[in-house]
């Protein structure tokens, strides 16, 4: 395996953004699991784990991955979807969480474990106040819920933890 070509393929795959959360790459999200290159054939295989089945974004991500890898010299790249272990919002990187906050989307709290009361669990990404309320279970996309801050009155999207 050529390390250089492999990392070039990895870099190309890592540039693909999530169609729903355009501020995040699939690497930020933890959706990009692995990029390997077959030593004999040079064929690149990209492994991804979908966020959740309600997100039609995965088809777009697969197409964008193939396009990005074709542009990087791998027109025959294969995209493999792996469902186990299941993706969780815990896989979003620290850089990804910072980008979400900068974009005005409240980053998800830890999934699983001890449940946090929703009224205490979501901070306003605009002013940081904890005094927020859920306005709608569905935000601008199926993956987000709509919240409003009682302190600054600004609405914001919250990426659902699951
Ligand atoms: Zn606020």
Description:
The structure is a single chain. This protein has 162 residues and is an alpha/beta fold. The chain folds into 2 domains: 3-87, Fe-S cluster assembly (FSCA) (GMP Synthetase, Chain A, domain 3, 2-Layer Sandwich), CATH 3.30.300.130; 104-159, no CATH class. 27% of the residues lie in helices and 20% in strands. The protein is built from 5 helices and 7 strands. It has helices at residues 3-14, 26-29, 57-71, 94-102, 118-121; strands spanning 32-37, 44-48, 78-81, 105-106, 132-136, 144-149, 155-159. A 4-stranded mixed β-sheet has the order 4-7-6-5. Strands 1-2-3 form a 3-stranded mixed β-sheet. A hairpin with a 7-residue loop joins β5 (132-136) and β6 (144-149). The longest helix has 15 residues, at 57-71. The relative contact order is 0.15. It binds zinc ion (ZN). Zinc ion binds at residues 124, 126-127, 129, 149, 151-152, 154. Zinc ion (ZN) is lined by residues 124, 126-127, 129, 149, 151-152, 154.
Query: Are any ligands bound, and if so which?
Result: zinc ion
Which oligomeric state applies? single chain
Query: By CATH's scheme, which homologous superfamily of the largest domain applies?
Result: Fe-S cluster assembly (FSCA)
CATH topology of the largest domain: GMP Synthetase, Chain A, domain 3
Low-confidence stretches: 114-120
Tell me the total number of β-strands: 7
Shape: elongated
Strand order of the largest sheet: 4-7-6-5
Distance between the termini: 37 Å
The level-1 CATH class of the largest domain: Alpha Beta
The whole-angstrom Rg is 18 Å
N-to-C SSE series? HHEEHEHEHEEE
* Helix-strand category: alpha/beta
Helix content: 25-40%
- Count of DSSP H/I helices: 5
- Count of discrete structural domains: 2
Largest beta-sheet characterization: 4 strands, mixed
**Could you report the average pLDDT, rounded to the nearest whole number?**
82
Taken as a percent bin, the fraction of beta residues is: 15-25%
The appropriate CATH architecture of the largest domain is 2-Layer Sandwich
Protein name: Phenylacetate-CoA oxygenase subunit PaaJ
Organism: Plantactinospora mayteni
Domain PaaD zinc beta ribbon: 120-159
Domain MIP18 family-like: 10-74
């Amino acid at each position: 395996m050529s390390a250089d070509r492999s990392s070039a393929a990895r870099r190309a795959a890592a540039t693909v953004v999530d169609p729903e959360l355009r501020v995040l790459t699939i690497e930020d999200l933890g959706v990009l699991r692995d990029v390997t290159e077959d030593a004999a054939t040079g064929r690149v295989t990209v492994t991804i784990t979908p966020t959740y089945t309600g997100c039609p974004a995965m088809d777009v991500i697969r197409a964008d991955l193939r396009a990005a890898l074709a542009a990087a010299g791998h027109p025959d790249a294969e995209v493999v979807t792996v469902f186990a272990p299941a993706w969780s919002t815990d896989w979003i990187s620290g850089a990804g969480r910072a980008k979400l906050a900068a974009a005005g989307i409240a980053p998800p709290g830890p999934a699983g474990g001890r449940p946090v009361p929703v009224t205490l669990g979501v901070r306003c990404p605009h002013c940081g106040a904890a005094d927020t309320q859920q306005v709608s279970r569905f935000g601008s996309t199926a993956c987000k819920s709509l919240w409003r801050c009682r302190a600054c009155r600004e609405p914001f999207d919250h990426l659902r933890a699951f």
